[in-house]
Amino acid sequence: MQARCHRLRRFVATLVCALALPGCGSDAPPLNLAAAPDAGAGVALNSEAVNVVFDSVAKSALHTFTVPVYALGVAAGAVIVGTESGVSSATLEALSPMASVGGTKPGWVRAMASRGSGLLVAAKGGLFHVSKGQLVLSGLNASVAKLTTGALAVSGAGTDEVLWIAAQEGLHRVKGGKLERVDVASSTAPIAVGVAGKTVLAAYADALYEVDAGAGSAVMAPAEVGTISAIAVAGETAWLASDLGLVRRAANGTYTLWQLLDKDKKALSVVAVAALLDSAGVASSKGVLALTTQGIVRCDGKTVTALSGLPKGVEPNELVVDRWGHAWVGGGGAVAALLVGQPPSFAKDVAPVLKSACNVCHLGGSLAPKRDFSNYALVQAISETVIERIALGSMPPGTKLDDKDLQTIYGWYDSGMMP
Fold this sequence. Notes:
Blueprint: H1 2-12, H2 15-20, E1 30-32, E2 34-36, E3 45-51, E4 60-64, E5 69-75, E6 78-83, E7 87-90, E8 95-97, E9 109-115, E10 118-123, E11 126-131, E12 134-137, H3 141-144, E13 149-155, E14 162-167, E15 170-175, E16 178-183, E17 190-196, E18 199-204, E19 208-212, E20 217-220, E21 228-234, E22 237-242, E23 245-249, E24 255-261, E25 267-268, E26 270-277, E27 283-292, E28 295-299, E29 304-309, E30 318-321, E31 327-331, E32 334-338, H4 346-362, H5 376-381, H6 383-392, H7 403-414
Parallel strand pairs: 1-16, 2-20, 3-24
Antiparallel strand pairs: 4-32, 5-6, 6-7, 7-8, 9-10, 10-11, 11-12, 13-14, 14-15, 15-16, 17-18, 18-19, 19-20, 21-22, 22-23, 23-24, 24-25, 26-27, 27-28, 28-29, 30-31, 31-32
């Protein structure tokens, strides 16, 4: 309940004001949709009860803050943490405050959304995007400055890009630089928004709507999906965090609800969801991780598997997945990385590269120090030196590793140097 309140409290102050009262909120002209509240009755809904038992807690890395964590995201493979006071990038080893180009400070971060392999950040100080490890004030900032954003979603790219915003002032979209309010039948403010293919999913406290702005209509999803607090999208598939469990909306429009039962057969709510990423850091069809109040589960669309309980010191409010499949959980004043993914391993991925590139000199007849770079303990002990010299191009001398091999070595180092 505490985790769900964390997400809902952003909207409580203006729930009635947001859509129901005239003159409240943004100055954008409204697009009033013809809602069909009973249309969800004809939508297929499959339901399955699944037992999930969290017998153990995966190895984890914990980072603490002096202020609350409100949002997590991924940009170019890096985990980004939004707090009450700003933005930081995170690795397993350290946190690094993120600088803002132009000096505009983000302040309290309210929401993040993937934008291809990049990231949009909505904060008290404005709308930003992450570029080359820095925050840059978005060109759309002036359009959305009056909104109190709680969730974001992006569809399309370039001139076809549309930004969807779930705000205290209602559901909005920005298209061609123009802000427009999108009204549906709900009298509350939207909690979450996602775009799956051509379908916009807008979650309110009283219903989930499938919005078709082009057709000027909104269809209510089946009430049996429960109250949705977060949405993650991979292509045309949407994954929904529900108070009743984990929900998937397939590309054909059908819904599946997995009711998660703990060891005492008590139902678990899902408070956050995050789609698994491909090697480029973009949401993929591999499946999803879901955060409950007791732990993390993985679903591939067919089966649900309990991965890990939760470590001490972090509240289960926010969830993101890095490119290796590790789950980052944020809440309260902490972020924990649970090592449940499949990062590059030394034996399988790194040793063959280093053996081929390095041992010809280091175990051959040259004057290079005699070292076997297929030895895990040795490479781990001098890993910082290895990474530095590879990055500078001084190792291996006279040649250069190809990009694939470079990314394998860097990925192994960044993900915790698995044996």
